[in-house]
Amino acid sequence: MRIKSISPLAAGKLLGALYAGLALIVGLFLGIFTLIAGVAQGGEAIAGGVIGGLGMMFMLPIFYGIAGFVGGLLMAVFYNMAASFVGGMEFEIET
Fold first, then answer.
1. For residue 13, which of 22, 52, 61, 74 sits 20 to 30 Å off, Cα-Cα?
2. pLDDT confidence of 2, banded at 50, 70, 90?
3. Which tens digit of pLDDT belongs to each residue from 57-93?
4. Concatenated DSSP letters of the chain
């Protein structure tokens, strides 16, 4: 079997969702650590820890999702151009 082309929009949506999901997990951990660090320092650092922590939890998945979508879109377009010259990727499937 040979993959001759990939739908750029489908690849963009898939990679956007994968990157956003990964960033959600990483963002939660980074956000929690930032919150803890701000509280541990006390004083004015608490506000910075809260703002930074919540910012990571919410903004990181959005930015990673957009970057994954654009990256998936571009890579599918590049794959389709390269596959037109070299014939695409071949897979051997056993049933």
1. 52
2. confident
3. 889 999 999 999 999 999 999 999 999 999 888 888 8
4. -EE----HHHHHHHHHHHHHHHHHHHHHHHHHHHHHHHHHH-TTHHHHHHHHHHHHHHHHHHHHHHHHHHHHHHHHHHHHHHHHHH--EE-----
84-87 contact pairs (CB < 8 A, 24+) = 87/2, 87/4
**The two three-digit tokens of residue 17, written as one number:** 């969702």
Contacts with 56 (C-beta within 8 Å, 6 or more apart), sequence order: 27, 30, 31, 34
Return the exposure string of 20-39: e unless at least 16 CB atoms fall within 10 Å of the residue's CB, then b. Answer: beebbeebeebbeebbeebe
Q: Which two tokens stand for residue 59?
A: 């903004």
Which two three-digit tokens encode residue 36?
Answer: 């803890």
